[in-house]
């Protein structure tokens, strides 16, 4: 048994198991007695579990602020087989506690929001009974995510890693019987699971290599031995780990699951597929910074993957018409920024952007959810007026089932109908676009400053991505909120209630002031994290880069205004201004560069062809041929040998006699062995 | 004293007659008698060698063989009666139900 790392010196560190236990308690309570405490009760229990978890994280942070020593809290001996000794121990250091604060903090706001959102969503989808299930899953996710970020060894981290993947699958497929053809949502969930499995395979290989060479999974034990093993071992581990990162954090080439994951309810998109789970890859690289620092090639591979993803996803976001898909591609693009940052060794900048992005992207998703709810209510007012009682109508929703409340072409003019949502959405969009002095400006600027020192090509890619970010966000705002309403549903849209708008306002405030956690010159976050991560290069505030980024972002907004704002479309069928100018290119963007088509052809199609080949000639031909051949052989020989069985006793006796004679002849010939 | 080879020759002749009887005859009773003939040829050889070597083991064995043969006759005759009841014949060539 390895000696457990000495317990943390920081005060309150002993509380750390509760960040995992509280959500588990919450989900158990809802599972067992949720049926009897009503929707509000379920929502309160779940939000309280997440909120108390946040409280514990705050206590841990206060303890670390007093004594900022990294430490671990042993909890259980988990696996002890031969050389393998993995314990269930919680890591308490500034990095893990930062992640806990983000996960539980944003998570709690989203829990509260979901009370209002799921109330309407479950009725809109005609199954109020699933309200409780949603919160059970949500608490399970918080627990799994806490295991991921509080792990003290890679094996425990992997448990959390798989746990959040499971929750993601369950929540994407929450309305598993809905979607196109009744299977689209289930297929989206399956796609997310399978694509993530490819990434997890990479992480597993990395872990196997790690154990093979280091004989330990524990962070400190692994990092201590980095200098002792040959460089290619580190390279193999880091590159396979990168494959895991591309799966979980939706980077090229495995990002394709995230846009489809928007089939899940909007709070899920905000919590799992924007703010927390998808940043696990960034956290993994930051956590493994000792390994990456030892291998410059792996570092630049990570940086290039991130930068290419940032620009690639940003171009796709320009051509999307679904309000959530724009945000999904935007998330992929922003994750590209973070991955590029940690790849360039700018771990603080990456973590900084992770935090601010959690604020404003959760805000944007939740506000988009509020827009969708408003559209659904407007749809009911404009077309049906049945309120919530739709059970007698069946799924057809009175003849306008093809109306898509998420399609931005059906919106327009919502500014007047949904004032609060409009306000917070603009704040979120400007923060995302990187307009000073909102949160995104500072964090994005740090990444760009790091890129300017690392590689000019990556800097150019990231600035181009920042330009497109500003462009597609303003395009979205114009299509959704400005101009005039293009459908009767949009004209009748209704603002959401306070349980929904309150979390939005809090997140909007965080998006405004979030940059304060690492202001240039003050660098609170950097001094906080440097107790855990060796800060190799301090991203100096570069006024040139900052001004360039700001100008580029304003240019993006200006271009979007020129194209969309001056003469807003008035009908849902009006073509997109980009479509009229560059129809082919725009359609290609709408179809996401046909990557899904390509993957379907090459990987899915290739796999099906391989499976077909193995089934038809190989299995049915070769393997069945051998087995059937033995059968035919046995039958044919039996057909022949049956003639020996004449049924005449005397012929058997004759054979016996001949046998005896033959044996005796042999014995006489050779001579009888004497005893 | 008559040489032992005479007895052994007689034993061999009896045995061959028995074998030929089993192989050639179709009547189960005659086959049975041929079988007894083979038993007794073996008994004769036993006794001969017992006398030749002055060892009583062979003599002793003959008693066992006769006892077993008596028991075997009882079972064999019972079987034959039963076969005759079902087949109305004790011709062994008629008993070929197990022909493959």
Q: What is this structure's SSE topology?
A:
The complex is a heterodimer of chains A (675) and B (100).
Chain A: H1 17-33, H2 38-66, E1 71-81, E2 84-92, H3 94-124, H4 130-150, H5 154-172, H6 184-214, H7 219-224, H8 231-248, H9 257-260, H10 266-275, H11 280-287, H12 289-293, H13 296-318, H14 323-343, H15 347-384, H16 414-417, H17 419-433, H18 439-454, H19 456-480, H20 488-491, H21 498-513, H22 524-529, H23 543-565, H24 577-581, H25 583-590, H26 595-641, H27 649-670
Antiparallel strand pairs in A: 1-2
Helix pairs in contact in A: 1-2, 1-4, 2-3, 2-4, 3-4, 3-10, 3-15, 3-21, 4-5, 5-6, 5-10, 6-8, 8-11, 8-13, 10-15, 11-14, 13-14, 13-19, 14-15, 14-18, 14-19, 15-17, 15-18, 15-21, 17-19, 17-21, 18-19, 18-23, 19-23
Chain B: H1 4-24, H2 28-53, H3 57-87
Helix pairs in contact in B: 1-2, 2-3
Poorly predicted segments of chain A: 1-5, 386-400
Q: Could you describe the largest sheet of chain B, including whether it forms a barrel?
A: none
Strand content of chain B: under 5%
Global mean pLDDT of chain A: 89
The total of helices of chain A stands at: 27
Cα-based radius of gyration of chain A, to the nearest Å: 31 Å
Instruction: Kindly state the percentage of residues in helix of chain B.
Output: over 70%
How are helices and strands ordered from N to C of chain B? HHH
Q: How many angstroms separate the termini of chain B?
A: 55 Å
Residue share in helix of chain A: 55-70%
- Which sequence of SSEs, written as H and E, runs from N to C of chain A? HHEEHHHHHHHHHHHHHHHHHHHHHHHHH
Explained architecture:
The complex is a heterodimer of chains A (about 675) and B (about 100). Chain A is mostly helical. In chain A, about 70% of the residues lie in helices and about 5% in strands. Chain A has 27 helices and two strands. Chain A has helices spanning about 15-35, 40-65, 95-125, 130-150, 155-170, 185-215, 220-225, 230-250, 255-260, 265-275, 280-285, 290-295, 295-320, 325-345, 345-385, 415, 420-435, 440-455, 455-480, 490, 500-515, 525-530, 545-565, 575-580, 585-590, 595-640, 650-670; strands spanning about 70-80, 85-90. In chain A, strands 1-2 form a two-stranded antiparallel ribbon. With about 100 residues, chain B is mainly α. Chain B is built from three helices and no strands. Chain B has helices spanning about 5-25, 30-55, 55-85. In chain B, helix 1 runs antiparallel to helix 2 and helix 2 (about 30-55) runs antiparallel to helix 3 (about 55-85). The chains are: A mainly alpha (about 675), B mainly alpha (about 100). The interface between A and B is medium-sized, with 13 and 13 residues.
